[in-house]
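User: I've been going back and forth on whether these two constructs are worth ordering. Before I decide, could you fold them both?

Assistant: Sure. I'll take them in the order you sent them. The first construct and its C-alpha cells:
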Amino acid sequence: MIDEGIDNYRESAAFTESEKVALEYSELMQFAPERIDAAFYERLRMHYTDAEIIELGAFIGFNVGYHTFFRTLDFYPMYSPDGRLVSQNESRRIYGRKPVSHLQGALARAQDGAGGEDSAAEEG
C-alpha cells in the first residue's frame, strides 16, 4: 500500500477519494505548497472537517520537516523493506544514495544481500 500510495495513488483502486485527496495534500505540502489554495481546501472539505484538515496538515508538515532534517544528516531508514532493523551502512546499501520505493529494487537487495554499495548507489 505504501508503494501504491507513492507511485500510483491517483489511478489506484486501493484508495478512496478521501484518501487520494489526503495523499495529494501530502505531495503538495512537500513539493508545491504554493498550489494549496482556497480551491484545494474546498476539495479537502468535501471529505474532511476543518479540524481534520488542520490535524492532517500539521501531521504532514511534521513528517515533511523531520524527513528533510534527516536528509541533512545523511540519515537512512532504520528498517529494511522486509522489516529487519539495520545499520546505517546496510540501509545505504539497500536504498542507495537516495532512498527509493520498495518496488525499485530495495526489497530484493534487502532479501538477498547482493549488489553491494555500488549497485545500490546507481539507483540514487
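The second construct, handled the same way:
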Amino acid sequence: MKKLTQIGAYGLIEENGRVLLTKHSEGPYKGLLDLPGGDFVHGETARQCVERQIQKDSELNISELKLLDVLTDRISWSNNNNLEDLHMICILFNINAKIKKLKDSSLAWFDLKEISDNHLTPVAIKAINDLRK
C-alpha cells in the first residue's frame, strides 16, 4: 500500500446563504462537492496558496481572509488498482470576497439549506456545518 500525505489550503466563501463549492472529477472523492482550493507549490504560504487556487478558477476581489481551522482526513482507495492510503492536511480559511466571474465549470453556488452531507467531502461537511451553527 502506498502512503501519501497531501497538504492544501481551502476557502469557505459564503454569500447570501449560498456557499461556493467545486465538484471533484477524480480521486477518492470523485463526484463529491468540496471547498475551492488545493495543493501548495514550493515556497507558498497558506494564504498565497488559497488565493492562487481560487483565483485560477474565478475572478474575485478578496476583502478578508481569516484562518478558520486546520483539519485532517484519511482515506484508503484504489487508484488504478493500486491501493493508496491518503492523509490530507487541510488549512481552511473563511474568505470574504466578491466573485465577479466563475471561470471553471466545476465551481458553483449552492444554497446552505439544500446541501446534503452525503454530497460533500468530510472537510466540506465540517466547514459547512460550522457555518450553519
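Notes on the second construct follow. The first strand starts at residue 2 and ends at 15. The chain has one domain: 2-132.
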